[in-house]
Backbone:
C-alpha cells in the first residue's frame, strides 16, 4: 500500500520528493530513472528556502505521469486546495514544524 511505502522511505531518511516519486513508482508501476530521483535533491527542503513542499511538487509530477493534461489540471488544483485547507499553507518549513 502506498502509505506504507511512503513511511518506509521516510524511516530510511529519504527526502520528501524522492519518497513520493519512489513510492508512487512502485505502487503504480511507473518507470523512473535514477537521474530523476537524483534531481529530487535540487528541490528538497522547499527548494532549499523552505518554500513549496517538495513532496507536493513530486505528487503533482506523479499526477502528470498518471493522467492526461486536462485531468492533471483538475487533480492538481484539488490536491493543493485540500492541502491548503487542511494545513493552512503549502510551505515546507511550516509543514515540517
Residues:
Amino acid at each position: 500500500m502506498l502509505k506504507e511505502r511512503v513511511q518506509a522511505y521516510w524511516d530510511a531518511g529519504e527526502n520528501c520528493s524522492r519518497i513520493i516519486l519512489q513510492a508512487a513508482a512502485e505502487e503504480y508501476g511507473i518507470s523512473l530513472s535514477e537521474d530523476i530521483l537524483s534531481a529530487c535533491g535540487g528541490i528538497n527542503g522547499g527548494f532549499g528556502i523552505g518554500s513549496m513542499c517538495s513532496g507536493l511538487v513530486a505528487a503533482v509530477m506523479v499526477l502528470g505521469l498518471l493522467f492526461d493534461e486536462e485531468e492533471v489540471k483538475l487533480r492538481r488544483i484539488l490536491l493543493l486546495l485540500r492541502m491548503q485547507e487542511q494545513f493552512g499553507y503549502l510551505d515546507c518549513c511550516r509543514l515540517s514544524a
Summary: Helices lie at 2-11, 16-28, 34-39, 44-50, 54-66, 69-87, 92-95.
